[in-house]
Specification:
Elements: H1 3-15, H2 18-33, H3 40-47, H4 51-57, H5 61-85, H6 90-105, H7 117-124, H8 130-153, H9 158-182, H10 186-200
Helix pairs in contact: 2-3, 2-5, 5-6, 5-8, 6-8, 6-10, 8-9, 9-10
Length: 202
């Protein structure tokens, strides 16, 4: 990027509302370095705002963490909806969930792909923390989306829908965990293939 282009990008960043800049900075630092290791000073410095600006937008670091988790959930839903637009039937609807996870893994992360940002954050939060509840709701919604597509595929087999949805959710989460440890999305590609094979046998 040229100096002129870099200056223009920084100027454009400064014009963004402080809340957006803080959330973007938190997203980068929390994912790259972890929630506990990232202090308020680091986030405000990266966002280019005063510390008071953070507290004008978030009541505490915990409030910022919850906003980050909500934003990650909405970000993933956006990826899923884009994939769903390409789906031609219920089977492809299920696979759109897997594809959205792979899309997330393909982002240009500062220190590379480290797995699910939501689960990474939840692992650092104490039992009972509202942030963990946000992550749990996200995972429940993912399984519910899978079940919704399966209901279209198996309209007269509700018990099987629940079982297969849980099976696929476990497959997806296991693949995401292994992919995060390995730093590449190969496990997600394999999980998608396994899911497609299973769906073909229903």
């Amino acid at each position: 990027m040229s100096e002129t282009g870099g200056a223009a990008a920084k100027s454009g960043e400064r014009r963004r509302p402080a809340r957006e800049r803080l959330l973007a900075a938190a997203a980068r630092r929390f994912y790259a370095d972890g929630v506990s290791a990232t202090g308020i000073d680091t986030i405000t410095a990266e966002a280019g705002v005063a510390k008071m600006s953070l507290y004008n937008n978030f009541s505490s670091k915990s409030d910022l963490v919850r906003a980050y988790l909500d934003a990650r959930h909405e970000e993933w839903l956006g990826l899923y909806r884009r994939r769903l637009e390409e789906a031609r039937d219920a089977r492809e609807g299920v696979l759109a969930v897997f594809d959205a996870y792979a899309d997330h893994a393909g982002f240009a992360y500062e220190h590379g792909f480290r797995g699910c940002g939501l689960l990474n954050a939840a692992a650092e939060l104490p039992a009972g923390d509202e942030g963990r509840a946000v992550v749990r709701r996200h995972k429940e919604e993912v399984e519910s989306l899978i079940a919704g597509h399966l209901e279209q595929l198996l309209p007269d087999r509700p018990r099987e829908v629940r079982t297969v949805a849980e099976h696929l959710a476990f497959l997806l989460e296991g693949a995401m965990a292994r992919a995060g440890l390995e730093g590449v999305d190969t496990r997600l590609e394999r999980a998608r293939t396994m899911a497609a094979d299973l769906l073909g046998r229903l």
